[in-house]
Design goal:
By secondary structure, this protein is an all-beta fold. A hairpin with a 2-residue loop joins strand 7 and strand 8. The chain contains no helices and eleven strands. Helix content is 0%, strand content 43%. Strands 2, 4, 7, 8 and 9 form a five-stranded mixed beta sheet that branches. Strands 1-3-6-5 form a four-stranded antiparallel beta sheet, with no helix packed on it. Strands 10-11 form a two-stranded antiparallel sheet.
């Protein structure tokens, strides 16, 4: 049976983008790769807090938090070999707090210059001024 790092898969928004000051998440699937050791590294403008949960089914949940925005590299190695697409380049945006709760609704498909346009912003539990 074929085994090795080339059979490990990883995915999730935390490997594409993230936000400073909050946990960003992704998943890693090692079941097809056979027995081995998974190593995770994160390099960038600030040190990362990394949390790793083995689901005991050949997959794991990874979450990380960094304090500074910027470009980071997430390295995933299985038995000391990079998995496909590793290291992942991830842009971490500045913290937006609860602004991620805001949602724009009924935004017009088109607008005219110097004419008012109406749309709604749903607060979804957030408080504060726009």
């Amino acid at each position: 049976r074929d085994s090795g790092s080339h059979l490990v898969k990883a995915g999730g928004t935390g490997l594409e983008r993230g936000e400073a000051g909050r946990f960003n998440e992704f998943n890693v699937w090692t079941r097809e790769a056979g027995a081995g050791q998974l190593a995770i590294s994160l390099e960038g403008p600030s040190k990362a807090e990394i949390d790793f949960k083995d689901r005991k089914d050949g997959s794991c949940d990874v979450s990380y938090k960094v304090d500074e925005p910027g470009e980071y590299r997430i390295g995933l190695k299985f038995n000391e070999q990079h998995i496909p697409d590793s290291p992942f380049k991830v842009y971490i945006s500045p913290a937006v707090g609860d602004a991620y709760l805001l949602e724009v609704a009924q935004f017009p498909d088109s607008a005219q210059v110097e004419k008012p346009a109406q749309f709604y912003i749903r607060m979804n539990g957030d408080k504060g001024e726009l």
